[in-house]
Protein 1
Amino acid sequence: MTNVLTATKPPAMQTPIERNYLDVSGVGKAFRGVRVMDAMNFRMAKGELVSLLGPSGCGKTTLLRIIAGLMAADEGAVVLGGRNITTLPAHKRNISVVFQNYALFPHLTVAENVAFGLRARGTAKGDTAKPVAEALALVRMTEFADRPIAALSGGQQQRVAVARALVVDPDLLLLDEPFSALDRKLRETMQVELKAMLRDRGITAIFVTHDQEEALGVSDRIAVMNAGRIEQFADPSTLYARPNSPFVMDFVGLSTRLHGTVTSHDAGMITVKTAIGDLHARANFPVGTAVLLGVRPELVAPDPDPQMNSVTVPLRDVMVLGSKTVLHGVANDADRVLCELPGIRSGFSHGQTATLGWSIEDTLVYEVAG
Ligand SMILES: Nc1ncnc2c1ncn2[C@@H]1O[C@H](COP(=O)(O)OP(=O)(O)O)[C@@H](O)[C@H]1O
Ligand SMILES: [Mg+2]
């Protein structure tokens, strides 16, 4: 049976995604002879919300500035909506940027700040009122229109910065750590609001953050960056469940970490000797390979079944966090076993020994330098 709604609006999944609305290819950059970015390729679809996630100094802002035209790449190309904009000046790109420090004009009012973007693009003074009012309504700042910026809180200033960026109806919105100056609760509210607003309006946006939870929460896809390179570019669940390197495993979420050496392999299954016993994983590394095993903490539980990976470890810490209880088991030196149980769990205490286990299928394994 065909229902009117489903007939007129097929699910988004049925539409093939063309990931070349923004196409950054072969981009490189050096500062005073030091290469900070090499052969960078980055593509996204129209309407996508993508996060660049990585530690401080990995090149997130550099990539954003090159896309915005605020900085020239040494080589490579930037194509937006089929148009090569590599050498186009920033003000001709129709790309809006929201900076970490908001970069608002403190002596102007909220409405004047939002109108500034339009005026800079040649909109006549008399024609700014309507789009400014719409942009302020979007960020729920209508009643603050005539206030000076200095009279606003950090969260309100951030809303104005977003309104100023959106009022010009940009082809691409770039946000560089926009919420990093806000406290945790306000940041979470802003994340939910921003995501809904961008989704509703179908805006294509790149969101820079060094906060993995923020990236997982706001994005359709996440590019994890490390030292000027993209380590993995995937949707949040793939990134979390199947990180493709120890760097991504450690940067996105917490994990058990156990180093060891492959002692046998058979039909896609390896046995790894670690300081706290033999463990198994699905992989094909030859005998003698040095590996790092990992597993996400919520996949680890006490009293494992005999066919599971199992270790017995002293507990260094038991953290009762309300919604979850985290057991921190010690393996040796840098190695650890983390177990996260839902809710408040009694019966575990610091210093006791616990037997913890997890499925072989859930075991992540990476080759490392021996
Ligand atoms: N204008 C500049 N002059 C010299 N080095 C720079 C400049 N901008 C960035 N860098 C260097 O480039 C690297 C990447 O910086 P950046 O893109 O700001 O990283 P992120 O935004 O991820 O923290 C860092 O090593 C940084 O020190
Ligand atoms: Mg930065």
Protein 2
Amino acid sequence: MNFLTGFKDRTALVTGGGRGIGRATSILLAQLGTKVAVNYVSNDNAAKQTLIEIKSRGGEAFLIKGDVSKQEDVDRIVKETMEQYQAIDILVNCAGVIGYGAIEEASKSDWDRNIRINMTGTFLMCKAVVPIMKMKHYGKIVNMSSLAGVTAGMSSVHYSASKAGVMGFTRRLAVELAPYGIATNCVAPGMIETDMVSHRLATLEGRKRVEQMHPVGRIGSPHEVACLIAYLASQEAGFIIGETVNINGGRFVG
Ligand SMILES: NC(=O)c1ccc[n+]([C@@H]2O[C@H](COP(=O)([O-])OP(=O)(O)OC[C@H]3O[C@@H](n4cnc5c(N)ncnc54)[C@H](O)[C@@H]3O)[C@@H](O)[C@H]2O)c1
């Protein structure tokens, strides 16, 4: 008996699935039996590698290029996913960017980029997919916040603001959609070993400093976050609505 159900004969759309947490999530969902539309925006080779990994483990997936912050791309991503799989039961909004620097150094375009991709991208994807889920009276939406949305974080006001925004957005959307059989939640990871933060871990000294910030004494893996996302996307998590689930190696309690 499987501990978690709700993946077989289901379809997922994972944004930012070409690498990092999105890639790990796409691979895991496919392994669990879900057909996965893997969205990516650049780096075709990384996206192809995700697809190769899914197929080599016997999973079903296809790649779909597009920018989640552009309405026309979002419409096309959703249309092509529906043409390919005739359903979107699980939406995982992993696409994201980060920004650094104090407020004096931050340009308006830095601010706009973080808000546009992290927040508006999440809004546009949810808005496009919700009618499809409502028709089926079934859906799981997992958005991506961050420790930086819950605490001050280590990056910038624009990143923190965008990730805190995702939490507020998720709470409100969850209440709107729960009566339609759609569960909406978000996850807030601490430092996870991906390209997004690789520069912070590039030197042994930098890596040690970051590791010591976590009571577990290490950085998280994309697979660990993917497991949490998969749980929230499972049938068994249906009583969890509008939550931000933290996954940060004890940063809050250490
Ligand atoms: N790595 C961490 O420590 C960490 C911690 C907390 C939250 N997060 C969040 O997790 C998510 C995944 O990040 P990651 O760590 O895997 O980093 P990553 O940089 O490896 O992955 C982000 C992905 O989003 C894609 N993307 C960026 N802009 C896009 C757009 N406009 N349209 C479509 N795709 C776009 C990128 O191409 C990339 O594939 C992000 O939302 C990030 O903010 C990461």
Protein 3
Amino acid sequence: MIQSERIKIYNSFGFDENGEYVLYWMQSAQRIKNNHALELSIQLANKHNLPLLVCFIVMERYPGANRRHYEFMLEGIDDLKTDLNELGISFAVQVGDVKALITDLSHRASIVVFDDSITRPLKQLKDDVGQLIQKQVFTVETNVIVPIETAYPKEAYAAYAIRKALQRQAAYFAVGFESSQLKNKSTIGNVQESVHLESVFEKNLSHLEDLPSIRKVKGGEREALNRLCSYIENELEYYDSLSNHPEKDVTSHLSPYIHFGQLSPVTVYEEAMKSGKNSAGLIEQLFIRRELAYNFVHYNPNYDLDLMKILPDWAIKELDRHRIDARPYEYNIETLEQGRTHDTYWNAAQKEMVLTGFMHGTMRMYWGKKVIEWTKTPEEAFEILLYLNDKYQLDGRDPNGYAGIAWCFGKHDRPFSERAIFGKVRYMNAEGLKRKYRIEKYVENIMKLEDQS
Ligand SMILES: Cc1cc2nc3c(=O)[nH]c(=O)nc-3n(C[C@H](O)[C@H](O)[C@H](O)COP(=O)(O)OP(=O)(O)OC[C@H]3O[C@@H](n4cnc5c(N)ncnc54)[C@H](O)[C@@H]3O)c2cc1C
């Protein structure tokens, strides 16, 4: 079922009777299962007895993305080529100027469907492309459980503000569906041949920065669904008691798949609930915290631009009052990036991220808090955190990352007792890590990884 709240009509053009196909520009929802934009496209094609063309455009210079991100994403696109074709759906993968390519494909379409985007680069691009297309365009919000504006009409102060509203709407929105079968499977002629993904790195993406990397995960919807299945079967039951422990590493590691839209949050929610296991902790993160992050990025255009325009007044006041406090250590971006501080735990977290493209959630909080403590100003810390997070995390450049970094400065949080540098913004220290976790074991795990690299 596609809830009507997910669908927006983008412009005032009508259905083009002379069109040859329905066109779905897949960008943020790189999957088949529980993809409401794909489902709407199939339903429109069936209604008008048309074939369906799904296209994916590989942008050669997507802001902030490097080879690590592209490899993960294109592994998924490669699988989709086979999986969509098996459903009788044509799939064109092209490289280059998105505006020109989509506009070109839209000329022969009867109607066009976009999936939703929330961060600035894709949102802007979709607006630009939408204005060039002279066909009716639908956008479909498929990467959240509850559509953002339906969930809450303004920027939420903290999780408590939206939790009840989200929970109330879960029974209606957190419902997966069986995809409809496409009826008209005829081949669409004269569409520029799809690029060969094996050669795309050499031909089009050779300029990308290649990071030293231990690949622990492969990208793609098939991998995502396997990972989800095995996680629910083997580890979900430990989530509530152990997910905070960096040394145990029992969180789901689903964030990169969710980030690229290879896995729908609806699927994770439904499968976790169906398992009958205790999934309260996981659902709090996946649903409430994640959709709070989407709320933040949707309603606050400064999410990655201006720290003082995203924080609550009390946090701004506290950070301002403590600007003059002496920093116990000061590190520049190079020292931080290389993980060469005095703090073994912090260095281990930084190395985990650099080497694997992932950092444990507890360490992300500690990692962010320490950068605030070790840099001259909150603004400098904000800039460094955004840079490192977006460059190295496979799930970077995501609303969760922007909200997570803002949280380190007091966003969505409450005042605690007063400290130097932080004022009443929550503070974390190494003693806490030692007291609560077997943090030396975490460091040992990362050192083993380093030896493999
Ligand atoms: C400084 C900082 C930076 C962060 N950067 C990112 C980032 O770039 N991308 C990213 O996806 N998350 C980010 N997070 C949020 C969170 O740490 C990660 O989503 C989580 O650690 C991913 O691991 P997992 O998939 O095993 O999570 P699990 O614990 O298994 O949770 C399941 C899913 O819930 C969502 N989720 C979990 N924790 C949070 C959270 N705190 N806020 C919002 N959603 C959450 C994610 O989609 C995750 O995949 C950041 C947090 C902080 C404090």
